TrEMBL record:
Region span, Disordered: 1-53
Low complexity compositional bias, start-end: 1-22
Source species: Planomonospora alba
Record domain Radical SAM core: where: 86-323
Name of this protein: Heme chaperone HemW
Amino acid sequence: MIPTTPTTPASPASAMTPMTPAGPGRRGSASPAETGRSAGRRGREPGGPGALLDAGPYQGYVYAYPHKTAYRPLEPRPPLREVWADEPQDSLFLYLHIPFCEMRCGFCNLFTRTGAPGELVTAYLDALERQARAVAGALDSPRFVTAAIGGGTPTYLSAGELTRLLDLTERTMGVDLRAVPLSVETSPATATADRLAVLAERGTTRISIGVQSFVDAEVRAAVRPQKRAEVTAALGRIREAGFGTLNLDLIYGIDGQTERTWRRSLEAALEWEPEELYLYPLYVRPLTGLGRRARDWDDHRLALYRQGRDHLLAAGYEQVSMRMFRLPGAGAAGAGSGSGGAEYCCQRDGMVGLGCGARSYTSRLHYSYEYAVAAGQVRAIIDDYVRLAPQEFGVANVGFRLDGEERRRRHLLQSLLRAEGLDEAGYRDRFGTGAAEDFAEELARLAERGWLEQAGAGRLRLTAEGLARSDAIGPALFSGRVRELMAQYEAR
């Protein structure tokens, strides 16, 4: 049930200190002990969650909660065997991270480096194998039900290096990659026939390729030196290899992009009949090439989003989230397609990450290695990773501990930001309380704006306009503790 905002003011005992104004890379502060209800009271104060909702539709992409900029060094560093000791291990996601690309696009803020020499790639795979052995030794008969290889660009690896990666993963982690959904990211320049043949033979079910735009002038504006002919050839090879799911990534909001050119890219993408499409808004990011210019183009991006959404819905796609669109019936074809496979539940199940840019999730601890965006810092972190001794992989280094309130908030975020919304009974079964009770004022603020609705008995979901504003709603639902840690993080 959607709560309504109480008309009585908060008592003096529950009043909170106003938060600082928020914006990209800048978040307000709050007490680490702040709960869902007390966080809701802050929304009426300057700079609080309510202000985030009104600051514009593009505050930040919430692809995980909490963000890595809220992670901190863990002292003492907990052994992985203790971290995973009481965790369910019968429905896990295995994620492998390859932090290499042939080029760095102007819009990119991923943890990746370009131009890695062959000896560094070999050293990285050596280190990943050492890490896999340590992680496997800390787990108790894990069962992986889905897997993904991301980056970076995993197909930066040669066909032989991809074979080694898949071999060590299966051998060390005890997973048959042919028996689970497996998603792999690629690029037009690296989707070569020999690499795709390896991936197809080893059971890859989903290939995701970053096209961004089918208009050459737009990809040049996004500092991505590729030609449409190169994209067309790569897509032909992918379709010829026979993967069950093809995902195309497109970007809107690029300099010079119009409704007409955006429609050209959408129509060109649909010619390949992809099972999935992701539509990403362009973001100005600190420390990335395009982040060095400032321009307000929220209205333009929102108009292009609505155009893209309507175009894909009219073409028979269903909307899974603000970014993701999928053909009906294609849901279980590959990991990484939103739910991660038929048996994996992102709100509940754990994830094991291998590689220096990968995260791992348990119910109470999210952990990884250091995080950076700037090229020099990324290179330093990779160089440190490849030199780590085997025993160093047996502990968690950097992370975030989730208390009960943060677990509830994560479940809420991951549910509401999907088109299907929040199953209220499932939430209550897991936590023993109702989401409408735990986050009364947050949900009331969304409903007041027309962004949240009751979709039948027992389900809360964002309206079409609410889904369009997912990148404002997500950050507004962050806890005060997470916003404070993110505000203290020094970008590098």
